[in-house]
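Hi U.,

Before I forget, here's the chain from the pilot set. I'm dumping it here mostly so it's searchable later in email.
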Amino acid sequence: MHMLDNPIWNALGTCQAHFAESYGMLRRFPPEMTPLGGFPEANEEGFEALRGLLKSGGGIGIFLPGQIEAPAGLEIPHESPLLQMILENEASSHAMQTNSPALRTHEYVELGPADVPEMVELTALMKPGPFGTRTREMGTYIGIRKDGRLAAMAGERLKLPGYTEISAVCTHPEHLGKGYAGFLMTVLAERIRARGEVPFLHVRPQNTRAIQVYERLGYERRLLYHYAVFRAAAGAKAPGAGA
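Structure:
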């Protein structure tokens, strides 16, 4: 199995192991960082770990090979297909470089701890994916400011040996169509490639506008899998509880 076939689990076992919280065979990031976790396989052992983790409340997002029915004791309040795209081969690299000069018309800033409230506000508005008060700690985040306010941002999330995910790509509605997203992604991709790594990303298949932007930048479709949020089913008993 390729590392990117199960990226959350593999990230938490390698480059981001220092963030990992474990429960049985399950690994997850701290919830305030991102509500993502993973296990080696979507089997009963993995779901038993999920039930144990979630018995006290909360939820967790898992990348799965495909859609499943909610296992006993668990609910799936949100789910959707998820497309993984990658900027890997020479043709993709050339496409990125070809797009770069036209995009280099914007000034960007590194986003730090003081920017977190605005980052959370922008991602809550545009919903590019889960983003918490500690997500910025997962990698480099950059943004474009206009009139003192954060107009667009993008950053790094999952990190695996040889691969870094570009995530939280979003632009405020007042600034759409100005090329900010493509510019920020190009800056990040060039940094990632300079480290000898390969950029990849995730996007919902129905977000055709974003996919078109990513394909123009040279990203290719690699894998379609399923994103599911799990929580304990109402009235579910903790593992091992009596009748």
